[in-house]
Predict the structure.
Amino acid sequence: MTGDPDAAGFVQVMQGRSSDPDRARQLMAQDPDEWAAFRPDVIGSVAVGHEGGAYTLAMYFTSEQAAREGERKEPPPQLKAVMEEMNQLMAGEPEFLDLRQPWLYSP
């Protein structure tokens, strides 16, 4: 986490399935400082694994505009390789839910 998720102006929830959940978890844990530098608009995330390789991922962004701009950025080679491997592990197309006015409360 690089910020306060309660301050997120936009949250994107992604649900899908991975052909190799263990490898996906390893990839998601790699290079946190590089990811934070590349995508400063991401202020937090929560990932949940379900049976059969299914997952739910919530990404907290400073704003929707910043998130969309970040999506268009070309990642550095090392991060691009991780993204490509993650995409290869996808079993089908993920579903996205955009929360444009999130209500976030935490203790």
Observations:
- The helical segments are 21-29, 32-38, 64-72, 77-88.
